[in-house]
Sequence to fold (478 residues):
Amino acid sequence: MEQDNWQIITFTLGVSILSTVLILPGGIFLAWLLSRPRWFGKSVVETLVALPLVVPPVATGLILLELFGRRGVLGSILEKDLGLEIVFTWRAVVIAIGVMSFPLLVRTSRVAFEGVNPRLEEIARTLGAGEARIFFTIALPLAARGIIAGTMLAFARALGEFGATVMVAGNIPGRTSTIALSIYEYVQLGQDGAALKLLAFSVLMAFGAVWVSELVIRRRMPVR
Amino acid sequence: MKNIIRSISITLAVAAALFTARLRAADIYVSAAASLTDVLKEIAIPYEKQSGDNLVFNFAASSVLARQIEEGAPADLIFSADEAKLDALQKAGLLLPETRKSVLSNTLVIVVPNDSTINFSSAKDLAGPGITKIAVGEPSSVPAGIYAKEYLDKLGIWQKVTDKIVPVESVRAALAAVESGNVDAGIVYKTDALISQKVKVAYEIPVSEGPAISYPLAVLKDAKSPDAAKKLAAYLESAPAEAVFEKYGFLVKQ
Fold:
């Protein structure tokens, strides 16, 4: 039992860290794009990104299952051509929690990018800096706090994801069981004691993540 | 004016009649194993007409049902896919023991998606290389999973297939996983395989070799309509009900 719990905890931490790292580059870039004034299709992209926040998680899970299932559009290509099994494996867990936590990263980071004074970027441009250089030397450092906060929020969301994960990854002990899935399973089996231990741990983890993100948001900026 | 009064009084009389009929009819809360979903729904139609009672079904894995009842969920009758769940409820004093009866039996089959090309000559082929994922009910709680594990253990291949097992929350979830093609095979009841158009039976486990499957029912101590539930329990053992059970492939215990 204790052994199992440690496996569940380390697995959950592992997939959460991995998915957060994987969504980071795309999430930051998209957040920056969305912070730019009007471009074609912006509102559509905006809505699509927010979708996993508002649609029931199991519905998102169903969409992922249709996409990544063995007979799905992406799943059949990945499995037949690349030999990558997705559904009911740890990869499905990473995909599910990544998709579910993506909006939190993008929305928080976007606000941070919008808070960057555009005059600083204008000045850099007049001094001859290219867009990439402006992004890496001005926008990104100035928005760093918000991005870190968004990353922590996304990580916390990943730790606790249930609905989408159970749809695409199932609940396979030792292979796809995360903390949230195991708590449900333990309660179903009447092992409330084991469930409470995991509950305590997940509360601690989530508390830590949210606390760090709050701390980062509140901390005073050196330059503004 | 006379007409209006007359039509109002007729309406009131009809409403009153309907209302009292509604009062006399009992709502019977039936917690039944997932594998009984289709057959009980069919049996309910003539029964509701005949008795005037209303059946409210809660279908889930028997393990889930037992857990819900332990937690105080409303139920008048439980119809489980294994004896162990009723043993636990009886021990906890939640059943009316004299109402407990074993009614049905079933057999296990190995199902594969319709388009699968894998041929089975025995259940041991599950350990073969063509099979990477096998959906079964959660093997420590869901009856269909417990039975499947018991059988594979007996064959001596449980250890070999453990890594392929995808445990799901009920036998119907195992069936659905095979239907979607996301697993290579599943172990379900014969009765589940019979209702699906999207799976085929790859291997039927002979009754003599398979585990002893038993579906008991009992009226619960906290039943809100115990008398109606007892009547329903008796009906489930009557000839018309047995005929429907057999139509769906269940084995009726004598």
The mean pLDDT of chain B is 92. Chain B touches chain A at residues 63-64, 67, 70, 132-133, 138, 140-141, 165-169, 180-183 (CB under 8 Å). Residues 65 and 159 of chain B are 29 Å apart (CA to CA).
